[in-house]
Amino acid sequence: MISKKVIFTGRVQGVGFRYATKQLALGFEVVGTVKNLNDGTVELRIQGEAEEVDEFITEISEESDLAGFIKEIAISEIPMFEANGFSITS
To answer: Which of 4, 31, 34, 35 is the most exposed place for a label (fewest CB within 10 A)?
Structure first.
């Protein structure tokens, strides 16, 4: 199991990014949260088996309709966290 934090920069707020991310998460064995940050970025905290986490991030950033809104991605490993499913937080 691994945990990662991903910061998406670009036109990622006001375009349904968080809701689409939550829908995409249903197709993967991952748990976590997605939220808008005050600086206009979106933060994804994701946890699961390494392959699932990496495939989910690739799906968002390269293969989904969301990819066109993303300008930059910053990924860092974070400590494991408590999560039940995948949710949008504020």
So the answer is: 35
